[in-house]
Design a protein that fits this description.
78% helix; membrane; transmembrane; transmembrane helix; DNA helicase; mainly alpha; single chain
């Protein structure tokens, strides 16, 4: 089969255009790979610098708040309740012993009972506080923030790879050849 000069010239021009397109596609693929690597690196930096410290600060703040509520509110209230109950019990026993002795319902000294109630309250508060100390459990392995960061990193990497695949799969001729220096035959 012989081709005239005009057709040969058009085919050479088409071959040159195909070679230019091929080279630009190879450059595009290498730039996309570089962008994907940089996006992964930036996501790792974001996780290390922003996400993990924020999650850790929230967890620490929650622990501190729990300790504060326990030591400032729960323990003193429980101690006061126990102390009041013990002082009422003691007063009832004193009243019973006075009635048995024939002295009647008259209280000898109200200040003495207030002093006893304070003493019982302080003792009960100390006892309960010693039993309810909050200890931080030792850290074991990766926490919730680390898991979230890993999941977000994997999701971002999958998204970048999927976008690159969608870009390159539209046309079979856009795939990179095994031999990048050799252009496809026209």
């Amino acid at each position: 089969m012989s081709l005239n000069r005009k057709r040969k010239k058009e085919l050479r021009k088409l071959q040159a255009q195909a070679n230019n397109l091929w080279e630009s596609q190879q450059v595009l693929v290498s730039e996309a790979a570089g962008i994907a690597r940089e996006a992964g690196r930036q996501l790792g930096n974001f996780n290390r610098e922003q996400l993990i410290p924020g999650v850790q600060a929230g967890v620490d703040k929650s622990k501190q708040f729990s300790k504060q509520v326990l030591s400032d509110k729960v323990v003193p209230t429980a101690g006061a309740v126990v102390g009041s109950a013990l002082s009422v019990w003691d007063a009832a026993n004193d009243t019973r012993s006075r009635l048995a002795a024939g002295k009647g319902f008259q209280l000898p000294d109200a200040a003495a009972y207030a002093k006893k109630a304070d003493k019982y309250g302080a003792k009960a508060t100390k006892k309960i506080a010693s039993k309810l100390t909050v200890l931080d459990p030792p850290k074991q392995g990766i926490g919730a923030g680390g898991v979230i960061a890993i999941v977000l990193g994997v999701a971002a990497a999958v998204g970048v790879l999927y976008a690159a695949w969608q870009t390159l799969r539209a046309d079979d001729e856009l795939w990179v050849a095994d031999d990048p220096l050799r252009a496809p035959d026209a």
